[in-house]
Prior knowledge:
Alpha-Beta Plaits; about 15% helix; CRISPR-associated protein Cas5
Amino acid sequence: MKVLRVKLRAYTASFRKPQxxxxxxxxxxxxxxxxxxxxxxxxxxKHDQALERFENSLMxxxxxxxxxxxxxxxxxxxxxxxxxxxxxxxxxxxxxxFPEYTIYLLDKEEILQRLYKALxxxxxxxxxxxxxxxxxxxxxxxxxxxxAMQGEIENVVIKGLLKPGQITLSKLNNQPxxxxxxxxxxxxxxxxxxxxxxTPVGYCEYTFVDVKVKYxxxxxxxxxxxxxxxxxxx
Length: 234
């Protein structure tokens, strides 16, 4: 089967956890809504239109790494409860330096072809996280893959919580499995067309597997690489 693989690289990237305020830690991976927002920018459509267009897509995320991570000091404007008065506040925001990600997308060939052409010649500037964190490299390509029921995974995102017995130690990894991180990610947004702001609608849990383990479950297999796929909208 034909899969669209998109390799991304940027100078910096930051994906703020919605639960954090004063110290804004970042997810280690781009949330699905950020990725679809990038697709929408490439195709020249609004974010809500892009969310609808890719609601049936199967997606996979692999974190290829970054050179470093740090914190930046930001001054932001906040409003009071009545949204009438504004005041300034200082926050620390975490960022990744020279991050690289690979996105896998499985959908109807017509949709993948349109996205491929759009990423080759995007309508708007592409970014991940904040608007000023522009992507410096984007490489979409079609590859052949198939499904497997088990395989070794590392630095990938799994939707939901792992079930007992779903992973075991890899023979290539003699270290014990450390505690894997689970993140509560915004599922969707409701856009206020009159005032322009957006409100989170629902949340999903995602597990980031940052060690090499053997995974038992359906995986996308590309040569010797295995990637979990999931539908972000469910």
